[in-house]
Write a structure and sequence with these properties.
heterotrimer; A mainly alpha; B mainly alpha; C alpha/beta; A: mainly alpha; MetI-like fold; 2 domains; C: alpha/beta; Rossmann fold; four-stranded antiparallel beta sheet; 10 helices
């Protein structure tokens, strides 16, 4: 349906373009003598006015349609004070699935008329969408045609339109951030009305499965002391720390070697080769960690008489560290290359060796950039999901033994949200609360890291 | 300081130098070694999935047992039961088998074998009432055994095939009745609970559709945004905020985009779950900053003299940029876009959150059909207990890596072409 | 003139950047405890030449140096020679002041530290103080030795670099246009300093400024297109050059 409308709008726009380019500009030429712009700009002008408003309306309409349908249908239920918002959502979902004939199980008879109403409303909405869009097209063509006949400066107008469209594209970045913050905040606030934020941030017991026990006798779920996120924060920190223990030394030394020692030829081969590590999908690392590295550590542990669980923080952390190596090494390489040659020459001219120059002159000069690189790597490690989901385990505990299973924020988000979920459940909302914690934490690291790197670059530019 | 002390000091300094250099070489070798182990591991365990093991059986297409004749229409043939002739053929493998073992005999082939027979018959109707040798897919456990992925010398109760099945299998093998052929169905089939039937057809199409949606949305928007930010944006607060947003979004964990998709697209806008449409939408938002940043770099690389040249001829800023700068920056922007898309292709976590982990056993055709994608398929299969899925997972990874290599090498090709023009 | 000892001598020195030849058969003798100025138009190979004298050209991958360079009669342009020992003996001051991003003290102490010249903190302090005094910077910075060297003015930075160079007690100091990034007052100070330093060190200075060459040097060499056209005492070169091109360059007809 929407696709047909889009194609129709495009056809209209295209014909407007040719209409404007030939017919209209000729007409203006006859009536006013001279054109203000090239004929094609009149075509562009008409086409833009024909297509853009219609497309905008189409998008807005499509996205908000269901929202209004829902509002109208549920208006009947709202009178009933015993039905809260969560229940309303549930009812609506049922109505939709009845209407789309996807309902499984016994169909509640009282909802059937609503399902019929839903279908007819949808039909009406679709029809009125068509009507609105095509009247918009007609109206805006008429309007822009009038404008053109006044022999406006079509080129400038078209360029203004182009610039505004570009601005809207750029502004999507802002909307995305807004969307993230709002959607996370919206669910999190619901969660924090049930579970106090302090309990969430300082509780040490994480077992959301228990909050799920919600039988008829206890209408309110037991949410006390099951949403303490400290073990998750610890697990996240712990695994990220293991990863950084692998990534920082290897990445740093690789970066230094590539920047200071490697010949151009070696660098040309080695650098992309190491960067391949960053290009491999994380799910592949997860598979590798769970099926090869984990069991390898367990067998190794058995040989030396240590008990290693097959899903261990160590396996996940080490594999994650390997994944992060290129983030550290490439940025280190770039940053060291940005240090001016004159500093190196100054040091060499005093008879210093390469390693002395690197350790005592280059690294101190490049330090802010390297710190920025490491911070970005930390943010990557904290937000990494698949490796920990597949290899780190699920049990939330405050362990400092890297050989035991450990769980992270991202793992819990995935575990909670896999499969069907209902939004009125504190467990689902908890995932969003974890999400917003993760978002703000990485945001802060990123901002600090990006600022440090930026300052470093400005210093030597 | 005398010359002896000096010599000692110099020796110390040079051994420090050597040590430092060694650390560098050691680190690089370690990183590359790990890459090799990873790839070697995946390839050795995955290659066997591209082949499947079959058993050649003598099948008697008995008219009576099938309940059909030469004139039976195709519809009726499809509805008829080929199980009986298959069972007869299988029981013929060991006529002395006690009743209790008969079920084990029947289990030697895959549950798909009767459909294979049916498909064969539909194409060769003249074989009615004849005895024909047909190769049929072996059951997964014996398939794994034949490929050497499963050791035969472990106790019977710890493996998924019996000693009896093993004996029959060995007999057939010594008569050269076990053959290997290229596993086309792996590329055609959708997911299945039976490892020997499971394929990546559905997730391959799903991935293509998702990336297509992602491309359609993210490339034009990202490209235009990059042009705006690099060429037209005035130096003011709004521009600054946009730039900070773009840079930060590029470093936001991908799972957060999944939460956005779940919270907004599914919960609020009621877009269809588990579909390439929503997947592409989420990935597009994630990819957008990763496209904008390299696109801006490509635009920046075009020398300002070209803009000035056009402006000096009286072209407007828009004309100068669109006619002169954009064509020159195009290869660079395309290579950035391809790399952004290749990251999106390997992305898993956000797609799991929007429900693309559902078990999909039909190949999707439209972006609004529920579907799986390659990386999620890897995740799903790696969680399965059956041994047969291990090689399938590795094989899926090989296909995934194949596409990534393809995309990245085309990006590198474009970039090299671009660099040549400007050096 | 009596007692003029040759410090550095080059024979058939050829330098190539990849396939492009930058210096052609340079034969030159530099005297001990004298200032030798090298002049010539841009790109004539002056800097390339003095970078050969402490093997700084090794830093550039594509650069190849052929021929013989002798310091005190010892060949330095051979493969398995320890370049760091040569650089300890032959210091260098660069065109743009390049203090390390460290404190003033650490800048000067860097060389003595890596070469193990100071036994204890006290003697290191002494070396730093003496070097800064010799570079005529001590009075200006003695109260802020812990502040970063990059915070000094351009002229002070260049004197800091000179102090850094003399801190390891070299025998030769190479100066590659040391004043080109400085204002006249700072330049005058550096020139004064050069005059004092020649008592202890052999100095080779590359300069663009004719007047500077005339003011500070005892000998002058004129480079043109990678060849040394004339090498003689400064007086002779500026008053009565043998070569027509030298005459033209000195009088400002090209360059």
């Amino acid at each position: 349906m929407n696709l047909t409308i889009i194609i129709l709008i495009l056809i209209f726009s295209l014909s407007c373009f040719f209409f404007g380019k030939t017919k209209v500009s000729n007409k203006i030429k006859i009536s006013r003598g001279k054109l203000n712009s090239l004929p094609k700009y009149y075509g562009y002008y008409l086409a833009a006015w024909c297509g853009l408003p219609a497309l905008l309306i189409l998008i807005l309409w499509t996205f908000s349609e269901l929202y209004f349908v829902k509002f109208i249908i549920l208006s009947d239920f709202k009178a009933d004070p015993t039905i809260d918002e969560n229940k309303l959502n549930l009812i609506f979902t049922e109505i939709v699935s009845i209407a789309e004939k996807k309902f499984s199980g016994q169909i509640p008879q009282n909802l059937i008329p609503y399902a019929e109403r839903f279908l007819s409303l949808k039909y009406i909405f679709e029809l009125s969408k068509l009507a609105v869009i095509f009247s918009t097209i007609l109206f805006s063509i008429f309007f822009s045609y009038e404008q053109i006949l006044k022999n406006i400066k079509a080129k400038e107008s078209v360029e203004k339109i182009i610039k505004s469209v570009m601005f809207c594209c750029a502004a999507i970045a802002i909307f995305t951030t807004f969307g993230i913050v709002l959607s996370l905040l919206f669910e999190s606030i619901k969660f924090f009305t049930v579970v106090p934020i302090f309990d969430f941030l300082s509780g040490t017991n994480w077992s959301p499965g228990r909050a799920f026990i919600r039988d008829a006798s206890t209408e309110i779920a037991d949410v006390e002391n099951v949403f303490g996120a400290v073990p998750l924060f610890w697990g996240t920190f712990f695994i990220a720390a293991i990863a950084m223990c692998v990534a920082i030394p290897i990445g740093l030394f690789s970066g230094i070697y590539m920047a200071e020692y490697a010949s151009r030829k070696v660098r040309k081969i080695v650098k992309p080769l190491i960067e391949v590590l960053a290009g491999i999908p994380t799910v592949v690392y997860g598979f590798f960690a769970a099926l090869t590295v984990g069991p390898f550590f367990r067998t190794l542990g058995e040989i030396i008489g240590l008990e290693v669980s097959s899903e261990s923080a160590l396996a996940a952390g080490i594999v994650m560290g390997v994944m992060i190596i290129p983030y550290v090494s490439s940025l280190t390489d770039d940053v060291i290359n940005a240090v001016p040659l004159s500093l190196r020459e100054g040091s060499f001219s005093l008879g210093a060796t390469k390693s002395e120059t690197t350790k005592k002159v280059i690294l101190p000069a490049a330090l802010p950039g390297i710190v920025g690189a490491i911070l970005l790597a930390v943010s990557r490690a904290v937000g990494e999901t698949m490796i920990v989901v597949m290899a780190a385990g699920l049990g939330a505990s405050l362990t400092i033994n890297p050989l035991e299973a450990s769980t992270t924020i991202t793992t819990q988000i995935v575990t909670i949200l896999v499969g069907e979920q209902s939004f009125d459940d504190p467990k689902t909302q908890a995932a969003f609360a974890l999400g917003i914690t993760l978002f703000f934490f990485t945001l802060i690291i990123n901002i600090i890291a990006l600022q440090t790197v930026k300052k470093f670059r400005e210093q030597y530019e | 300081m005398n010359s002896k002390q000096k010599e000692i000091l110099m020796r110390k300094r040079y051994s420090a130098e050597k040590r430092f250099k060694f650390f560098g070489i050691f680190s690089i070798s370690l990183a590359i070694l790990f890459l090799c182990i990873l790839l070697f591991n995946i390839f050795t365990s995955g290659l066997s999935a591209f082949f499947k093991t079959k058993l050649i059986l003598k099948i008697n297409f008995d008219e009576k047992k099938l309940g059909i004749n030469m004139n039976t229409p195709d519809e009726a043939i499809k509805a008829s039961n080929f199980n009986e002739i298959l069972q007869d053929a299988l029981l013929n493998l060991d006529l002395l088998a006690p009743d209790l073992k008969k079920i084990e005999l029947i289990d030697i082939v895959s549950i798909d074998a009767t459909y294979e027979l049916k498909r064969f018959y539909l194409q060769n109707k003249d074989q009615l009432n004849k005895i024909v040798e047909i190769s049929l897919t072996l059951s997964d456990d014996l398939d794994q055994l034949y490929k050497g992925n499963f050791p035969r010398d472990i106790p019977e109760d710890r493996r998924r095939f019996s000693d009896f099945q093993l004996k029959v299998f060995d007999e057939q093998n010594s008569q050269n009745k076990i053959i290997t052929e290229f596993n086309f169905s792996f590329f055609k089939n959708a997911d299945s609970r039976e490892p020997e039937l499971a394929g990546i057809g559905a997730s391959l199409i799903g991935s293509l559709l998702t990336i297509l949606v992602c491309l359609i949305l993210s490339f034009p928007i990202g490209f235009l945004a990059a042009i705006y930010l690099e060429e037209f944006a005035p130096k003011n607060k709004i521009t600054e905020i946009i730039e900070i947003n773009v840079n930060n979004l590029a470093a936001v964990p991908s799972i957060v985009f999944g939460l956005l998709g779940l919270g907004v697209f599914l919960n609020y806008f009621y877009l269809p779950r588990s579909t390439p449409l929503v997947g592409g939408l989420v990935l597009a938002l994630m990819t957008l900053p990763r496209i904008i940043i390299p696109c801006r770099a490509a635009l920046k690389a075009v020398s300002p003299s070209i803009r000035e040249g056009a402006l000096a001829l009286g072209a407007s800023k828009v004309q100068a940029v669109m006619h002169n700068v954009v064509p020159l920056a195009l290869p660079g922007t395309l290579s950035g876009t391809i790399i952004g898309l290749s990251q999106a292709l390997g992305e898993t976590a956000p797609l799991i959150l929007i429900g693309m982990v559902a078990f999909i056993n039909v190949v999707p055709t439209y972006p609004i059909d529920p579907s799986a994608v390659l990386p999620v398929q890897v995740y799903l299969w790696s969680e399965s207990a059956e041994r047969g899925f291990v090689e399938k997972t590795s094989a899926t990874i090989i296909i995934l890596i194949f596409f990534l290599v393809l995309m990245n090498s085309s990006a590198i090709y474009l970039r090299n072409k671009f660099e040549k023009k400007w050096s | 003139m009596i007692n003029e000892k040759i410090k550095i001598s080059t024979k058939n020195l050829n330098v190539f950047y990849a396939s492009k030849q930058a210096l052609f058969d340079i034969n030159i003798n530099l005297k001990e405890n004298k200032v030798t100025a090298l002049i010539g138009p841009s790109g004539c190979g002056k800097s390339t030449f003095i970078r050969c004298l402490n093997r700084m050209n090794d830093v550039i991958d594509i650069c190849k140096v052929e021929g013989s360079i002798k310091i005190d009669g010892d060949e330095i342009n051979k493969k398995n020679l320890d370049v760091n020992l040569i650089r300890e003996k032959v210091g260098m001051v660069f065109q743009k002041p390049n203090p390390f991003p460290k404190s003033i003290y650490d800048n000067v102490a860097y060389g003595p530290r890596i070469h193990g010249l100071a036994e204890n903190r006290e003697s290191l302090d002494n070396i730093v103080e003496n070097s800064l005094k010799k570079a005529a910077l001590w009075d200006e910075v003695k109260d802020r030795l812990n502040q970063p060297g990059t915070g000094l003015s351009g002229g002070q930075q260049q004197r800091l670099c000179i102090a850094r160079t003399i801190s390891i007690n070299p025998e030769v100091i190479l100066m590659d246009e040391p004043c080109s990034a400085l204002d006249p007052i700072a330049t005058a100070k550096i020139e004064e300093l050069i005059d004092e330093l020649k008592e202890t060190y052999t100095i080779v200075i590359v300069t663009h400024s004719m007047s500077q060459a005339a003011r500070v040097s005892n000998d002058t060499g004129f480079f043109h297109l990678g060849k040394i056209l004339e090498f003689n005492s400064t007086e002779k070169i500026f008053k009565n050059p043998d070569n027509k091109l030298t005459q033209d360059y000195i009088t400002g007809r090209f360059g």
